[in-house]
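Researcher: Structure for this, please.
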Amino acid sequence: MSPLPHSPTPLLLLLLLLLPSTALTFTPLLPHTTKTTTKTISSTQLQGTGNSFGRTFRITTYGESHGGGVGVILDGCPPRIPIDRDEVQKELDRRRPGQSRITTPRNEADSVEILSGLSPTGLTLGTPISMIVRNKDQRSNDYTGNDLSLAYRPSHADATYDAKYGVRAVAGGGRSSARETIGRVAAGAIAKKILHMHSGVEILAYVSAVQDIKTTSVDDDNFTMEEVDSNIVRCPDQETADKMIERIDKIRKTGNSVGGVVTCVARNVKAGLGSPVFDKLEADLAKACMSLPASKGFEIGSGFEGTMLTGKDHNDEFYIDKETGAARTKTNRSGGIQGGISNGETIVLRVCFKPTSTIGQSQATVTRDGKEVDLRGKGRHDPCVLPRAVPMVEAMVACTIMDALMMQEAQCGITGLGGRPNPLGKGVRREGFDGVVEKVELSGSKKAVGLNVDEE
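Model: Predicted structure, token format:
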């Protein structure tokens, strides 16, 4: 049997990742033979380390929970956008730990520093924007000075990070910690501002369920951030919020944790965003939200419950808005997206989050060297991630829609807005519309326009 060639060294792999996407040639050594084999590898084959998101509006987060700090590099931000540090800090304050008794008591100010990408007057330069938050209150000895340095926390990323990399950041969970989301929320703050400036887009999320306690009375078209932030669980339905808080408190006192659902809406998103077939808007939103720590499920519009309806009951019928002349839908079971493209209605999505993995009760686990052991978490952690997940979901939705908007402008904006057959959704008007909606009258016995179809 011929001996296998030596694998490329780690240094070579690193160089391939860092060099531009040009073809590189190397010759693997074959022991006991003088024959050589030349193999060409494109560096693009080795890219994809999972720390970046977006195509045109692109973010790359960095840092670990107990390292020197965490942050983000935002590339592709349009120039001449006024950005105030306090605008970014406001969003980070909604995400920070130590907010209440139902979040982790770790005391971090999460004060953001903007290192690059802004002019002295606070305008974006069009160059990469780097933002960092320095860690101040990490207690690494809580992890390295006891069994947590050896034992894997059940349902946490400890074991899988070890399996992938052969090493892991024991303290704080490293990159798997929710602290990584600081960079996302900082970039999301900028995305939210640009979207609002562009077309009045408003992105808001709230906790809609904690275990079996659900709110059904929130008006997705009208609730406000002030209503969301009026209580510590971030549910704008105060009566349901009180029940949620009571449930979390009850579970927290037993050393356990709970999960639930965050609902997010994006209002005034114009029609046309999203690129079939692999870059559908809901597909990009799903990836964005499912990349958040502890997320376990995603649905949009009617979601899984829509499977219980017939096509007649589920379809969103169209009508002409008498004020604008634009085509609208009577219902919104599509959740603002049809065929992978936004239709101008409010985007409504839901993300479910599992109970926090680290709990104060004894659980069976194993150690790194293959021994069974019981483990009980002690110290500071969230009994429920939902209140702090709200700004995280908003940020990822904002970055996704911002990226889709820039992609749309790059492909379709170059031809201008004229000549499009039909204005669709909220916030647009039909040119020359006089408020009169014409109804097509069918002749004879016809009750509806016939449509012959031949679909696969």
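Researcher: Any notable elements?
Model: Residues 386-411 form the longest helix (26 residues). Residues 1-34 have pLDDT under 50 and may be disordered.
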